[in-house]
Amino acid sequence: MKPILGALAKVIGYFAAFFTSMVLAIIPMQLIFGDSESLGTRLELLWFTIPVLVGAVVVNLSMAWLGKSKLVRLGWPDRQVFLRWFGIGTLIGLVMAGSILVFIWATGGGQFIIDNGKLSQYLSYVLPLVGCLLILALCEEWIFRGYPLSVLSPVLGRGWANLFVALFFTLSHWGDNGWNLLVVVNLILFSLVNGALRYSQGGIVAAWAFHFSWNTIQVLAGAIMSGDDFEVPWVHFTGQGPYWLSGGEFGPEGSIITTVVAIIGFVLVRKFLRQEENNPIHIDTSLTAYE
Questions:
Q1: If phi over 0 gives left and psi between -120 and 50 gives alpha, with beta otherwise, what is residue 227?
Q2: Where are the domains of the chain?
Q3: 195-213 mean pLDDT
Q4: Among 197, 206, 199, which Cα is nearest to 81's?
Q5: Who wins on pLDDT, 78 or 174?
Q6: For 90-94, 171-175, 260-264, 267-271, which range has the lowest pLDDT when averaged over its residues?
Q7: DSSP result, 92-136
Q8: Are 277 and 202 in contact (CB under 8 A)?
């Protein structure tokens, strides 16, 4: 029991240090740019990206250099598998998020609308968003699926460690627009898929790519993402019908369709990863060096 409590204390302290660093980075942002909500959704995302990046870098580098923690460095694959697993994670995210949008549309929970905007306006709007989403996904996976899983997995086992981190990840979205019980379930399931990929040969890179592509396909489709409506020009995915089908104010991620897709996706990802582990060219770079 003592090793478990010690590991939990380390992870909670790690999260506390990250959120403290992030809040301290937010203060000058508010002094310089004012309230993020007054900047518009696109600039609000950029406004939020900077403190998250600062918090992730400060906490992890401090632990690596000042604390000399080897655990904070785990989960990054060798260069020979980096691109392959970034591609795998990206493909899984695109298929799952794309399937959610298509099934919500097919069941009458949403519709795609093309307005009178121009493609050039669309590209100039979404490209900066995609850049921010790439950084945010990296930071969130680095924070939630990096050090915490490296510490918890040896004492809790991979499954329980993954679930514990999933609960913390879900709590980080507390208070988002449209928050409800179904959203909680879906966020936990989404996080479990991320954790499964983190345990793969691709490590944090696979989880990062999955997270990035999952978010990006929603934004590119003009859908609400995690309660944020980015008001993308030219194309829009508008929810309709009951919230449990459309996702309501939270967007497609709050739909029962997401629940089904996430469960099926988790099962298939686990099956795929087991096959990869049996591959004779498998190189285990995920969570091997607990010493």
A1: left
A2: 2-277
A3: 96
A4: 206
A5: 174
A6: 171-175
A7: HHHHHHHHHHHHHHHTTSEEEEE-S--HHHHHHHHHHHHHHHHHH
A8: no
